[in-house]
Amino acid sequence: MNSTFCISGYGYNVDLCSVVVIWFFEKFLPRHKIELEVLHRGLKREKVLGYCDLTDENYKRPREFLIELQTHMDEESYTKTLLHELVHLRQWVTGSLQLRYGKMCYCKEPVEKYEYAYQPHEIEAREQEETLYEQFMEEVCGVRINNSIIKTISRHLL
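-> structure tokens emitted (158 positions)
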């Protein structure tokens, strides 16, 4: 893995965060050199579970990112939210999500003309978070999910 990441904040499982990030980078972005900070902080006032932002000045080929996550989530919600934000990171890295003329565009189409829930990059991230969660659970934790809810995965990690 060519990428580096640091984790900070409060109210999270450092092992879970590390395992998810490493798995995602090795599986989906193995040849990219990415710098990522995952910051855990209270986001309830903002009514969100997470953000993925560029910290890189190079908007054409961004490689530096900040993912912010709500603290004290249950492990399933936490994992899905982190995977959702990592999908956005991958969208930026692969160029499907870009800043063009000061506007965020997905596949060269401005996303601002859609309501948030219908923005195409969000639809893709929501769809993929479920699939990625199932893959992660099976590949890393050895747990196959058949439309049932797994309450905890910590006993399967490391």
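Strands lie at 4-9, 35-41, 50-54, 64-70, 97-100, 103-106, 109-110.
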